[in-house]
UniProtKB/TrEMBL annotation:
<dbReference type="InterPro" id="IPR000792">
    <property type="entry name" value="Tscrpt_reg_LuxR_C"/>
</dbReference>
<dbReference type="InterPro" id="IPR027417">
    <property type="entry name" value="P-loop_NTPase"/>
</dbReference>
<keyword id="KW-0238">DNA-binding</keyword>
<keyword id="KW-0804">Transcription</keyword>
<dbReference type="InterPro" id="IPR016032">
    <property type="entry name" value="Sig_transdc_resp-reg_C-effctor"/>
</dbReference>
<dbReference type="Pfam" id="PF00196">
    <property type="entry name" value="GerE"/>
</dbReference>
<feature type="domain" description="HTH luxR-type">
    <location>
        <begin position="765"/>
        <end position="830"/>
    </location>
</feature>
<dbReference type="InterPro" id="IPR036388">
    <property type="entry name" value="WH-like_DNA-bd_sf"/>
</dbReference>
<keyword id="KW-0805">Transcription regulation</keyword>
<protein>
    <recommendedName>
        <fullName>HTH luxR-type domain-containing protein</fullName>
    </recommendedName>
</protein>
Length: 830
């Protein structure tokens, strides 16, 4: 409007011109031109609106009229005008700069642009864009009174900034109105536009040609015409309807075409998923039931919501005794299971089994029950579901690998390994058995800390999944195990693998999702994303059930809280972890709980208890395999052993790490260097380990190795080198917001006379609660609970003299004179 107002003022002064306004249909061009005419009339100018007849003729077709000046002339829909009109405009345009006459022409932007190239060169051009977000919000608020957060605002997103579509958001029969508008624009190409809407957000040219029965070149030409109207956008060999709202309304108004479109797709060997998309709202009939019976097996592992509805309707439509019943019901149970609707799947499978189906369908139904039990980390449920199918002591191969999974969940690793052996013959013929066997085998390799072997097996499993098998659970198992291996290798890629797996875990739900959150929390800790690690734990604990994973989840949270210096919160998390038994997959994470227990005991001044826990890990009393427990927490265990003065235990742990370190990865070699450097007091080896960890994105391990290097350097008197290593470690800890690590590192180096100054580490204050060490805080906490020094010593497994020293130092730092003041101080802190 500002452009047109300025041009009108120029024309009134005798300097007329031609303005060309271009826009796609629905963007309000006609309304804009009408508003301009009204403004010109209000300014006292003569106005003419030149219509374009259906034939293309206008008042300019016979030559340029004699318009009284000063005046404004508007020609709308110029794209439909005949050639004489365009020639007259060319002639008129030459004289306009010397006349008090403004001519404003409006046309659809993409329609035969070559016809208007010469006019575009001599006219003042203006392209009318769609409304931006602010304008859309203002228009919706004005038209419908819809404020922020209104569902109508969300619907308006689909209008793509088209005022015409926005104005019809609340029309009672919007689909018919929008379809009519599009059909009027598209003309003979309306049928193709409807097909494009039905085929989804992006329809291929080949698919459109196939279902329309038109040659591809004709389809391309039609899409070009629809694109010129702004209705369709083309990208390579695919076409998209420009406005999501238009596509949805066209599809709704064309729903009656879906059954015939489904048959055309099926007859042209389209992928079954495309057929299902058309059958979702179609009435059930014999052809649909037959087609579902033939194709359901392929569809159920990636079930669209339309498939579950179709299968339900098919079971209701089929007459009693129909031979298709059992197969359709088995497919329905599988589709429900793979959709994460486990209770519905369980009920459907159980009622279907009661109808005594033949062995193929019966075994499929029992497989559903077993997979549900696997997802719920319930090995007994798996055994119960499979036992009726055992013949001569053996299960069918696909059920046999499920039984092997259950053995693993029950901690029977020998049974799981035997299941792998039993599956080998069938794996050569059945890719489902093969991928299950490979994933199981990878678990065994990982438990033995053969990470390279585990990764090789996972690569093979991925190849089978890519080529021959569609099984979301096996795919997810492979992804999560890959993330576990990457985590044990200290690789930052573990977090990327978790994110790749997250959508499938969320779809399958149950224990899969709890396990994913556990892997994600540990990977986030490795990467130094401590807040994200806690968020993963909290998200898992918000689930209705953690399926046995609450124990490692709370333990992981406690580990992170220790790094943040939040000892009371870490202690509370450990107490929660202790309340949950370690079952199913959680048994493979016992070293996390044991290590965190030992770290807390060490920080609380209970080295005896910390060493006791570490010895238990080294002796194989923790977790399912000593190899996994020791290797998964090697550096922490070695450090605690050294801090506790048990060098023999530390060397024993390092020997275990060295003997197990066959993996060529940088992270595993770095872990060995870290452990060896601590035992040998080799600062250079520790610094090299820190450098290796930093290179693969494991910031926590890099900081820890650098911190220990600084301590070794300070002990050997190399104070300047110690200060440099300490500064680097503190910088890393600061980036990680690992306040607890900063405090512990600073205190350890200060005892050797190493200080960083004002720009270095954050020093512990000399007075107040923040001045207390972890051990002093724990003793003060027990004093506040009313325990005597002797009772505290018994609780912490330390001497009474040690407790008395902690109490004295705490009183001094708090500026208290009695134990009563400690009690009152704790009450005030809440």
């Amino acid at each position: 409007m500002a452009v047109l107002a300025a041009a009108t003022a120029e024309a009134g002064a005798g300097r007329g011109g031609l303005v060309m306004v271009r826009a796609d249909p629905g963007l309000g061009l006609s309304t804009l031109l009408d508003a301009h005419l009204a403004a010109a009339r209000s300014a006292g100018l003569r106005t003419w609106r030149v219509p374009v007849l259906p034939s293309g003729r206008t008042t300019l077709s016979a030559g340029v009229p004699e318009w009284t000046e000063p005046a404004v002339v508007v020609i709308d829909d110029l794209h439909r005008a005949d050639d004489p009109t365009l020639l007259a405009l060319h002639t008129l345009a030459d004289s306009l700069p010397r006349r008090a006459l403004l001519v404003v022409a409006g046309r659809h932007r993409g329609v035969t642009p070559a016809r208007f190239a010469q006019l575009d060169r001599i006219a003042l051009g203006h392209d009318l864009p769609p409304l931006d977000r602010d304008a859309v919000d203002a228009l919706v608020a004005e038209l419908f009174g819809a404020g922020p957060g209104s569902p109508l605002r969300e619907s308006a997103e689909g209008a793509g900034g088209s005022p015409w579509l926005l104005a019809r958001l609340t029309d009672p029969d919007r689909a018919s109105a929008v379809t009519g508008w599009a059909a009027e624009l598209a003309g003979a190409d309306t049928g193709l536009l409807r097909l494009a809407a039905l085929l989804g957000p992006a329809a291929s040219v080949d698919r459109l040609a196939s279902v329309s029965g038109s040659p591809p070149e004709e389809v391309l030409a039609a899409l070009g015409r629809l694109g010129a109207l702004g209705l369709v956008e083309q990208d390579a060999a695919r076409a998209r309807i420009r406005y999501p709202l238009l596509r949805a309304d066209l599809a709704a108004a064309s729903a009656g075409l879906r059954p015939s479109l489904a048959r055309r797709l099926a007859g042209r060997d389209a992928e079954p998923e495309a057929v299902v998309a058309q059958l979702g709202g179609a009435p059930m009939d014999g052809w649909t039931a037959d087609w579902l019976t033939a194709h359901a097996d392929r569809l159920v592992t990636r079930p669209a919501p339309e498939l579950v509805d179709l299968l339900r309707r098919a079971t209701a439509w089929l007459p009693p005794g129909d031979p298709r019943h059992h197969r359709i019901r088995a497919a329905l149970a599988e589709a429900l299971q793979w959709s994460g609707r486990l209770d519905e799947a369980r009920r459907t499978a159980a009622t279907s089994l009661a109808a005594r189906p033949e062995p193929p369908e019966r075994q499929r139904l029992r497989g559903v029950l077993a997979r549900i039990a696997v997802a719920e980390m319930d090995p007994d449920g798996v055994f119960a579901a499979l036992e009726p199918e055992r013949v001569d002591g053996r299960l069918p191969p696909r059920l046999g690998v499920l039984h092997a999974y259950a053995c693993g969940l029950a901690g029977d690793l020998a049974g799981a390994e035997q299941g792998v052996v039993d599956a080998i013959p069938a794996a050569a013929e059945d890719p489902v058995v093969e991928v299950s066997m490979l994933n199981l085998w990878a678990v065994g390799r990982c438990v033995e800390y053969d990470l390279a072997g585990a990764m090789e097996l996972l690569d093979r499993a991925d190849a089978v999944l890519d080529i021959a098998v569609s099984d979301p659970a096996q795919w997810l198992q492979s992804r999560l195990m890959r993330a576990v291996v990457q985590h044990l290798r200290f690789e930052a890629a573990a977090s990327d693998t978790v994110e790749e797996a997250r959508p499938v875990a969320e779809a399958l739900g149950a224990g899969w999702l709890a396990w994913l959150h556990t892997v994600a929390a540990l990977a986030a800790h490795n990467d130094g994303r401590l807040a994200q690690g806690l968020a993963e734990v909290d998200a898992a604990m918000a689930l209705p059930d953690q399926y046995g994973m609450a124990r490692p989840l709370h333990a992981t949270a406690a580990l992170i809280l220790l790094r943040q210096g939040r000892l009371p919160a870490a202690r509370a998390r450990l107490e929660l972890a202790e309340q949950h038994p370690g079952t199913g997959i959680a048994m493979f994470y016992e070293q996390v709980l044991a290590t965190t227990r030992a770290l807390l005991a060490d920080l609380e001044g209970r080295p005896g208890r910390a060493l006791e826990i570490v010895r238990g890990v080294a002796d194989g009393a923790v977790g399912v395999r000593a190899a996994l427990s020791v290797m998964g927490a090697g550096s922490w265990l070695v450090r605690i052993a050294l801090d506790g003065g048990d060098h023999d235990l530390a060397r024993r742990l390092v020997d275990e790490v060295r003997n197990r370190t066959t993996d060529p990865s940088v992270g595993v070699r770095g872990a060995l260097m870290f452990c060896q450097g601590m035992v040998d007091g080799d600062a250079e080896l520790l610094l090299a380990a820190s450098h290796q960890f930093a290179g693969i994105g494991s910031e926590v391990a890099a900081a820890d190795a650098g911190d220990h290097a600084a301590r070794v350097l300070a002990t050997s008197g190399r104070l300047e080198d110690a200060r440099a290593a300490h500064r680097d470690a503190i910088s890393r800890y600061t980036t990680l917001a690992a306040t607890g690590d900063i405090d512990r590192s600073t205190a350890a180096l200060r005892s050797h006379g190493v200080r960083l100054g004002a720009t270095g580490s954050r020093r512990r204050p000399k007075h107040g609660w923040a001045a207390l060490t972890g051990a002093e805080y724990r003793v003060a906490e027990l004093v506040a609970q009313g325990l005597s020094d002797r009772e505290i010593a018994a609780r912490l497994l330390v001497s009474v003299r040690t407790v008395h020293s902690h109490v004295s130092r705490a009183l001094g730092k708090l500026d208290y004179s009695s134990r009563i003041e400690i009690v009152l101080g704790f009450q005030q802190r809440g």
